[in-house]
Amino acid sequence: MRGYTVEMSFLMPVILLMIMSSIFGMFYYHDKNIICGAAYETAAVGSTKARERDGIEEEIRALFEERIRGKCILFDRMEVTVSMEEKEIEVAVTASKRKMRLSVLKRMRITDPESKIRNIRRLK
């Protein structure tokens, strides 16, 4: 009977470590997917709003933070950088929790559907 107690005293911490590691890994990938999705949505919305006016980086940053609010489990510190070039918008997110870091970069071309529609109508 003592042999089982000694074996279980070594085995149970290993089993608990594996369970906690898998839960921790699930939290990491959950937050990574949430951040990736929010960055992609923000870049998509920003690509349509970017042609309307200049200097909307703060509005796009606020839009990202609104999409992410209350959804992340593990990462608590996030830095969002929005940069707009002539034909492209870029949303870069870095998140950290102690020694773990996560970075996501999403780019999207700035759309201009009106000019394409006008060109098609001119050809007709």
Low-pLDDT parts are none
From the alpha carbons, calculate the radius of gyration and give it in angstroms. Answer: 23 Å
**Silhouette:** elongated
Please indicate the percent range of residues in DSSP E strands (runs of 2 or more). 15-25%
Cα separation of the termini: 90 Å
CATH class: Alpha Beta
Number of individual domains: 1
Largest sheet: 3 strands, antiparallel
Name the strands of the widest sheet in spatial order.
1-2-3
In CATH, the architecture is: Roll
Following the backbone from N to C, one meets helices and strands in this order, namely HHEEEH
The strand count comes to 3
Give the overall pLDDT as a whole number.
87
- Helix vs. strand class: alpha+beta
Helix content: 55-70%
User: With helices defined by DSSP (H or I, 4 residues minimum), what is the helix count?
Assistant: 3
CATH fold-level label: Nuclear Transport Factor 2, Chain: A
Report what the structure shows:
- With 124 residues, the protein is of the alpha+beta class.
- It has one domain: Nuclear Transport Factor 2, Chain: A (Roll).
- The chain is built from 3 helices and 3 strands; from the N terminus they run ααβββα.
- The protein has a 3-stranded antiparallel β-sheet with strand order 1-2-3, with helices on one face.
- β1 and β2 form a beta hairpin.
- It is elongated, with a radius of gyration of 23 Å.
